[in-house]
Amino acid sequence: MIDLLAAYAPWQIAAALVAGFGSAFVRGLTGFGMAILLVPILALALPPVESVLLANFLSFFIGMSEIRRLVRGAEPTAWRISALVVLLTPLGLFGLVATSEDLARFLIAMIALSAFAAVLLPRRSAAEPGHAATGAVGILSGLMTGYAGMPGPPVVPYYVGRDIPRETAKASMMLIFTIASLAGLVSGAALEILAWRLPVLAVMLFPAVLLGNWLGNHASGRVGDGLWRAVVGVILGGAALAALLRLL
User: Fold this and answer.
1) What predicted TM-score, i.e. pTM, was given to this entire model?
2) Which pLDDT tens digit goes with each residue over 114-123?
3) Cβ-count burial of 70 within 10 angstroms (0-12 exposed, 13-18 middle, 19+ buried)?
């Protein structure tokens, strides 16, 4: 294990540890945000492809730790979106390998901005959106999973922007993110870009992620619905601003 981690400097591991804990806390609090926050921070210390795949490992681990609750609480649309994510993730990951980092940053910034704008719109009814809207979310989320390890920007406005119970929105988003992370890992293995040191590093970081997620879940029970939605908007806005600054 030590030999596999020798490729990373101590400061890189420390940065990944702090980022994993902080992003997992946000995930537990809001139901999303882990990849949106984790990947850009990891990309400052690790190569982009490794950052995406490491985030997928951590997201999959934490999702499987609470999979029963997610399956019980998720809306049926989560399964339809997840199916499209699985189909489109390989295409997104192939695009990440084949295109420049500048183009990736531009696309991430634009999608983050659109997600932030969508959350600011008035809340819609609890009714499920049409098949076209649901399909578009699944397609975009799949491409973003592969291209940036971030299935969240299209998914979050889809659920948070509707007048449905918070726990339903959280469970639906988390279920999609868990399936998306597995799709990203399988795609990475198929494209032969999944280094063995990544799952080792992910296992090393997972206790901090588990603790951060538990603390976030505990805090979520003390936060009102209005404040919760405001936190969601702030996180998406911060992610969009960070993406734009990095692009510039």
Assistant:
1) 0.80
2) 666 666 666 6
3) buried
